[in-house]
């Protein structure tokens, strides 16, 4: 499998999705601002996102793809039976979770956003909107499973394009909301668009599987040895994903005590997640399937070559993105978001969070390589332990620093815990001979870093007074960086 080709496809579709996501965020900022309505919508949307990551795109794909690859090598029929059984169990579990979630939603919202209780009506409206959007859980997790099957067949592009569907529905809902004006009705329109987008995504992906003549369907779930192993690993994987989600929840909980902080952290996270999703997540998605196949064939040389190739390809773009975000954080937020209900105070608050959180980008990208390698080796326990330790460190930082620096305690904790988790995963990969740096890779990364810092300092000194100068600064950075980085990669 050509790693670069598949990473380019996934990263390309992710980039398109993030462009639409940016348009969506601009509309959210313009229509809802960074206050009461946006806090309600973003807090309510965290719940389906949380369960999607726990049961969908997180632990599920890490457990399913390596086991599916093994089943497929033995017999295509075994692979189909395994997939149908797994899918049927997943749908049954999601149905139970949805019913329970709808019943206990007031308790969940109180735990997630206790600070909302001080604003009359804010907590109650968040509960109502959360119940509507919780229905999204069934469809988006179903989509994530079907996407895992397609990824196992090395069909990454369509799966990567699905977030575009979600963003288009949200943009359409926001355009309708703009005509109605800022009111509670906007929240109902947005929540309905979220659920409808999940239905459409699942229908598209299921249709693609049918075109491949892969007979995925819901059957009466059967409990056997294979499913026992799968759910044992899935339970451990969910625990690991749960630590990551708890990290987000604790950050939201702490930030809820500062008005506007939930929204500030959301927008800063969106900016930092943009390059990570295009580069890091794309590489991790492709690498899981590729290394699973290589380990099944016991070809460690192929594993090392793939890992080092992905490291060079991802760091080529991750390091300049990190420096660029730090150097241009304030003008980017000012010229992209400071319109309508958005204030200059929000601009400065989001920019400060970005300048801190951007430092974690290299660790996040390398975490994908280490964790996917362990998942491909069917080891889900080590990432869980690393996540638990990282959660403890970040939580202590959130609580300890919030009285001193307010909401900025959250990005500081994110950076520290990110590098701690990175070190723990690397140590385990090296101990088990699952990772090896080949000659020249370290020199190339150092070269990319030095070049990025030098160019970043240059654009930081430039006076950026309008959005055209912002675009020119980013363009100049890329024009100078890419050819020089190519030379560094070739020579070192």
Structural class: mainly alpha
- Portion of residues in beta strands equals under 5%
- Cα radius of gyration in angstroms: 22 Å
Would you tell me the overall average pLDDT? Answer: 83
Main beta sheet strand tally, sense and closure: none
Q: End-to-end distance, in Å? A: 25 Å
Number of strands: 0
Helix content: over 70%
The parts where pLDDT drops under 50 for at least 5 residues are none
> How many helical elements?
17
Give the tally of structural domains.
Answer: 1
N-to-C SSE series?
HHHHHHHHHHHHHHHHH
Write down the overall geometry. Answer: globular
Report on this model:
- The protein has one domain (3-438).
- The two termini are 25 Å apart.
- The protein has helices at residues 3-31, 36-74, 76-103, 105-112, 122-134, 136-152, 157-180, 184-211, 225-255, 261-296, 300-337, 344-357, 361-376, 381-405, 409-431, 441-461, 467-491.
- It contains 17 helices and no strands.
- With 492 residues, the chain is an all-alpha fold.
